[in-house]
Amino acid sequence: MTIGRLGVVMFLLFVIESTLVPWFIPSSLAGRLYPHFTFVFVLYAALYGTRHKALMLGLLFGLLQDVVFYGSLLGLHSFAMGLIGYVTGLLLEKKKVTMMSALFTIALSCMVYELIIFAVYRVFWFTRESLSYAMVNHILLSTFLQLGFALAAYVPARRWVQSAIPVRQPEKEEE
Question: How many CA atoms lie within 13 Å of 94's alpha carbon, on the beta-carbon side?
């Protein structure tokens, strides 16, 4: 699969997370549970591809998310997805990533993503919730939703990303 096809898969995930998933969310969790499946694929691009591709995918799909859903602060989701994708790829660039370490990294990255969004909203007074209330009511819920999706999509996502984004081989040292 090429990077173009990966982009098409991510766009389909974006359409699914914005049209179909809200129908399956119980009414008691509506407005508290936010699916970010494209962000999970950005993290897979960072873990099994290159950090530069994760940055570009994060900026592109974050901007798409900003334009479609969150018009009050244009660029916030783009910044957060791109930054976290790049930093994740940078930190785990030369490490072998197992399934458990990938899921732990995705869970941690999703929490950081939600905390960045919350912090910026809090600074600009778009929300007046306390951090503990936000953590219990929507940050942890959204993180577990993303983690469940990451677990379900682990094998195909890893194969698609590894075949779409060729990983640079470490250079041999000259003697």
Answer: 3
Per-residue tokens: 170? 């470490």
Q: Give the chain as a 3 state SS string.
A: CCHHHHHHHHHHHHHHHHHCHHHHCCCCCCCCCCCCHHHHHHHHHHHHCCHHHHHHHHHHHHHHHHHHCCCCCCCHHHHHHHHHHHHHHHHCCCCCCCHHHHHHHHHHHHHHHHHHHHHHHHHCCCCCCCHHHHHHHHHHHHHHHHHHHHHHCHHHHHHHHHHHCCCCCCCCCCC
CA 129 → CA 70, 113, 119, distances in Å? 18, 17, 11
pLDDT average, residue stretch 134-151? 90
Q: How confident is the model at residue 159 (pLDDT cuts 50, 70, 90)?
A: confident
Total-model pTM: 0.85
Name the percent of the chain lying above pLDDT 90.
Answer: 37
CB 112 within 8 A of CB 63: no
The CA angle 48-141-153, to the nearest 5 degrees, is 30
